Amino acid sequence: MRPALRAVKALVFDVFGTVVDWRGSLIAEGRRLGRAKRLDVDWAAFADGWRAGYRPAMARVRAGALGWTSIDALHRMILDELLVRFSITGLSEAEIDHLNRVWHRLKPWPDARAGLRRLKRDYVIATLSNGNVALLTNMAKHAGLPWDCVLSAELFQHYKPDPETYLGAARILGLAPHEVMMVAAHKDDLRAARACGLRTGFVVRPLERGPGVRVDRRPEKDFDVNAREFNDLATKMARARS
């Protein structure tokens, strides 16, 4: 274990895919809606399409083509397009808004709550997500996620991987970048955090994009910790403290 990990005082977490199962949650909610409204929709394809719009929508904000726009608002823009693409009709505005807020109700991975509670004993734990504050707060309440605080790209009006987000999180926590570890299932997120001086923890989420989809599970020597899941991460961080 790298001695530098002894300096870590806070862990900040990517959320979508790392902490919560966005795809499984969206499919389950879509199927419930389909049964209630008699909609014949491929909800797996719908979920994948919704997520596929996420990066392009954020890229428009990061490039200045859109002013600052929250993830809730971006999700709604994508959803409006999907309703047309999948020929979904007959929903009231209240029902569409409720569907858009499914992102506030995502379910955690099975190890997430227990692993976070273990890590919380020794570290400040917080989100560092592109999700807006209301979304992340409601998700934490719904899913029982024990964050010490909720940090969001919204606070910095910069989406990851802009450096302002990673450095802003360290600043708000009153810490130097090397005292903060970014935890994510996405290597590009970790590489961007590492370039800003944060420590990095890679957690594998092989089912994020569904069964049968190949996911890069390879450990990386440039990351400070490579873990199978959150309990494994907690064990490895405990060893670093001893």
Keywords:
single chain, 242 residues, alpha/beta, Rossmann fold, DNA polymerase, domain 1, six-stranded parallel β-sheet, two-stranded antiparallel sheet, 11 helices, 8 strands
Task: Describe the overall structure.
Helix content is 47%, strand content 13%. The protein has 242 residues and is an alpha/beta fold. The protein has a six-stranded parallel beta sheet, sandwiched between helices. The longest helix is centred in the N-terminal third of the chain and has 16 residues, at 22-37. It is globular and about 60 Å long. The termini are close together.
Quick structural summary:
With 242 residues, the protein is an alpha/beta fold. It is 47% helix and 13% strand.
Alpha-beta content class:
alpha/beta
Low-confidence segments, given as residue ranges, are none
| Number of separate strands | 8
Summed up, the helix count is 11
Rg (C-alpha, Å):
18 Å
Major sheet: order of its strands? 5-4-1-6-7-8
Determine the mean pLDDT: 96
Can you tell me the CATH architecture of the largest domain? 3-Layer(aba) Sandwich
Write the SSE topology:
Blueprint lengths: L9 E4 L6 E2 H16 L5 H10 L1 H9 L8 H15 L7 H8 L6 E2 L3 H9 L3 E6 L3 H11 L5 E4 H4 L6 H10 L7 E5 L2 H9 L3 E5 L21 E3 L2 H12 L1
Parallel strand pairs: 1-4, 1-6, 4-5, 6-7, 7-8
Antiparallel strand pairs: 2-3
Helix pairs in contact: 1-2, 6-11
